[in-house]
Design goal:
The complex is a heterodimer of chains A (140) and B (207).
Chain A lengths: L1 H14 L4 H7 L8 H13 L5 H13 L6 H13 L3 H15 L3 H18 L17
Chain B lengths: L2 E2 L2 E2 L3 E3 L26 H5 L29 H9 L8 H11 L4 H5 L1 E2 L1 H27 L17 H15 L13 E2 L4 E2 L12
Antiparallel strand pairs in B: 1-2, 3-4, 5-6
Helix pairs in contact in B: 2-3
The chains are: A mainly alpha (140), B mainly alpha (207).
Chain lengths: 140, 207
Amino acid sequence: MSLFRALRPALTAQTRRLTVSASLNSAAPAAPLRRDDVMAAWVEYFDHPDCDYYNYRLGAQHLFSDDLLFDPVVYQAMLYACRRFNNFPAAMRTLELIRLKCGDREDVYDWVMQELAPTLEDLGIPTVEDMNLHIVETEL
Amino acid sequence: MLKVGSRRLLSVGLARAQTSGIIAHGNTTGDEVYIVGQNDPRRNQDNPEFNLHFFETLHVPFPIRPFQIGRPGSELAAVRAKESGDWKDLSAAEKEALYRGAFMQPIAEQQQGTDMWKGILGAFMLVMASTTCLVYELHTDVSGFKPNQAGFWYFWQPGWAQTRMNIAAENIFLEYTGSFNQRDYKHWDYVNHCWKNPKETRIDGAD
C-alpha cells in the first residue's frame, strides 16, 4: 500500500492528458510534408470535378502567392481545369502568372513551357508570346 | 529608363489604369494614370458593356467578375458561346476578344512603371540646393565665418571662448535687451571678474 501511494503521483503525471487542442498544437507532424505530396495534392485539387472558377481562383491565389515554382503537372492540371469550366482568359492569365513567377530565369520559363507544350497543343491555348501579352506597347 | 533585359528598373509606382469598380463605389480617386493607347477607364465606363463589379489588381490577378459584361446579342456574347466549344476552332481575334473581355490589362501592363521618380528626384535636388545656398550664406554673411576658418563645429575653434566673452561684455555694456539678448551678465561675477558658475549649463536666451 505504501509502495502504491509512493508511485501514484508519478503514474498520474504520466497518464494525465492535456486538452485535445493543446496536444494538437504542440505535437509535431508524424512525417514532414514532402514536395511530391504537395504537388499531388494540388493536382488533385485542380482535377476535382467540383473545381469551378471560384475554387480555381482560390487555389491559384494561394499557389501564385507562394514563393515557389510548382511542378508543370500542377500547371497542367490548372489548364485542364480552365478547359473544364470553359474559361479561356483564366488559362491565359495562368500562363501570364507562370511567366511572371519565373522572373529573370528565362531558362526555367522555357523549360516549363516546353513541358506544357503538349497540353497547350491539346487544348488549343496559345502562349503568352503568341498573343503578345508580354509586350507593353506604350513606352513612357 | 534603366533596363535589364526587357525589365524596367527604378520605377516608382505602377502605370496601371485604376479600375474604380465596386470597391471604389464607382468614384475615381484622382490617382489614376491614363496612358494614350492603353485602356482608359473613363472611356470604358461609357461602354454599356463595362462591368462595375470588375476589379483587377496585381495582387489579385483573377478578377471575380469579367471586365466586360457581354450582354445577350453582343459580339462578346457570341464569342463566349463559342468558348464552350473546342478552343482550337477559335481564331486569334476571337481569343484576343475573349481575353480583353475578361481582363482590363495584361500582367505586363500592370507591371509597367512610370517616370515619376525623375520628378521626385528633381524636387529633392532643388530642396537640397536651396538649403545648401541658405546655409552657406548664413555662415559667411551672417555669422561672418571665412572659408577654412570655421566649420560646422565652429565653437571648437581657438578664440571662441573669448568671442563669447566679448559678446557678453558687449551686451552688458549696451544693456542690450533685444529679442536675441544673451543676458550673460546675470552669470558674471563683477567682484571677482569671472563667471559665477562656469560649469553651469546655460542655454542662450533662456534667462
